[in-house]
Amino acid sequence: MRVTILGCGGSGGVPLLGGADARGAWGACDPSEPRNRRMRSSIAIQAPDGTTLLVDAGPDLRAQLLAHGIGRVDAVLLTHSHADHVMGLDELRIMNRIMGRALPLYANAATLEDVTRRFDYAFRPVTPGFFRPALEQHEVRAGQRVNIAGFDIRLFSQDHRVMETLGLRIGGFGYSTDVVEMPEPSFAELDGVRDWVVGCFQRQPHPVHAHVAKVVDWARRLQPARTVLTHMGPDLDWAWMRGALPHGMEPGFDGMVLETA
Length: 261
Fold this sequence. Notes:
The chain is α/β, with parallel strands linked by helices and 261 residues long. The chain contains seven helices and 14 strands.
């Protein structure tokens, strides 16, 4: 199984809009390091036959799919309905044309309620030509084991403070974006994970996102072979993290590929 990190930035990406020259506010990140340039968080999970599950569809989706050579999407799983994870849903119109059908979209009840209100036109009956995106809603919930596009997925609950987000586990791979506290049953779901991609927004505590020390503690508890940080803000410079993180932990970057099982 191949996992491509399409984007590993926070809600504003890195750099943020603005800056002294209006070409970006980089914070602590070195603008000369290309791995500090981060689009909004999303991953593509691909089976050996090319079947592709897209996890989240933020506002950078078109650029991400083009940059990383993702030419098909078989299904979409949304972790939650915050704008940086759903505002690219309209870009899936072209994927409808490529695939020749509506795309199944999986999310929990609260997320489905939100996206069907905001993107109501995407859930109407399919019309010839796909002049608007065509999505089929499928409700899932934390604690459920589901098969999506041939992937056997275990979903678990994450505390994002303002809402529940969905984490996912496929075999030895785990994905946990937008989380500030991990419920005990979810730690049990992650037990034995080998490759874990987990959100970590900044160095100091944050009200709705995990910070460096917390994620280090989580990784020490779970002991994955590899922990990769995602959903990183401008406080987290790539080179600083390479030097500061313990063995087995590393920062992600846009386009990073994990071959996992």
